[in-house]
Amino acid sequence: MWELGDMFKFILYADAILLKMGITCWSDEECIKILKKCKDAIPSKEKGGKVIIIDMVLMDRNLEKGDDKSYETQLFFDMLMMVHVFGKERNQQDWAKLISGAGFSDYNIIPILGLRSIIEVFP
Ligand SMILES: C[S@@+](CC[C@H](N)C(=O)[O-])C[C@H]1O[C@@H](n2cnc3c(N)ncnc32)[C@H](O)[C@@H]1O
Fold first, then answer.
1. Ranges for the O-methyltransferase C-terminal domain (predicted)?
2. 3-state DSSP assignment of residue 54
3. CATH 3.40.50.300 assigned to 15-55+88-123
4. I need a labelling partner for 64 at 20 to 30 A (CA). Which of 31, 47, 58, 113 fits?
5. What are the boundaries of each domain within the chain?
């Protein structure tokens, strides 16, 4: 079904790749496969290559005092991912493991989109 445009097989070369809610529904192994394909498709960090992920970064509840509703919503999304697909919502450490597992050197999380964040990932 996903022969053409299948991100597991090939990603078009670009200076930057945007993955919006595009990998949260996959297992860790699958996410690493996708991120490796992205890394193959972008130039080096020095030449401006990057992957931009827009997705949820689960909050650390202790750090987010007084924001129980947001925390609960994130946990419901986590449950949704587990019930319907093989994915899960991930905290900062989980994202770091995927990013380094795919061979990227650095990342930067910018939490400016409500429950979602921008994650800049550098080769
Ligand atoms: C959760 S949706 C996000 C859609 C959109 N980016 C957004 O934020 O509204 C995940 C998307 O991944 C696409 N997708 C699933 N498997 C794929 C694959 N193997 N290669 C490329 N895209 C795929 C689906 O068609 C779907 O559009």
1. 5-105
2. strand
3. no
4. 31
5. 15-55+88-123
